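ok so heres the complex, two chains, lmk if somethin looks off
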Amino acid sequence: NAGVTQTPKFRILKIGQSMTLQCAQDMNHNYMYWYRQDPGMGLKLIYYSVGAGITDKGEVPNGYNVSRSTTEDFPLRLELAAPSQTSVYFCASRTGVTGELFFGEGSRLTVL
Amino acid sequence: AQSVTQLGSHVSVSEGALVLLRCNYSSSVPPYLFWYVQYPNQGLQLLLKYTSAATLVKGINGFEAEFKKSETSFHLTKPSAHMSDAAEYFCAVSFNQGGKLIFGQGTELSVKP
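and the predicted structre for the whole thing:
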């Protein structure tokens, strides 16, 4: 099993550009999450999904969008990139509310 | 509002000493609580979790945590620290409805020889 796969691992964007971080899991997990990790700030929840077609905002959703058309995929869209979006982004999935989170390897994004 | 707070962004202990990392949550509904560890340049790994069964939970690498409803706490302990325990530790809270899972700010544990 591949687990949770994130692409790309690294990306440099210019201010105002847009991009999509891809996330796919092959564990048939219903729950999927996007977090950003900044030094000293822990992990902040951006968006999450409890199943295909269902998404909800987390703690820091501004500047981001998501979709969940299939159980496997949960892409994160950044529109009009800003320097404040420079961060490491983690996608994660789990079976349910008591389940262990399985994380992708992370995507390091720099906005200049 | 539901939240989780970790007291102390940095904790330093000597090898062999007790490790105590603090976590408090705020919730109007029963929570599910987790501790994760992140070693340098790696992803997060589950240490242990509380899901409304036994209040004292044992995890991997000798760690344990006790759920105290009256104190809204879920502190992580280990009787004797090893050098290999040096890492960042995150407390997280989830709830029965909605699926949201939020993390605390993290506590960096240093272990001195």
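quick notes: Chain B touches chain A at residues 6, 9, 32, 34, 36, 43-44, 46, 49, 51, 90, 92, 94-96, 98-106 (CB under 8 Å). thats all i got rn
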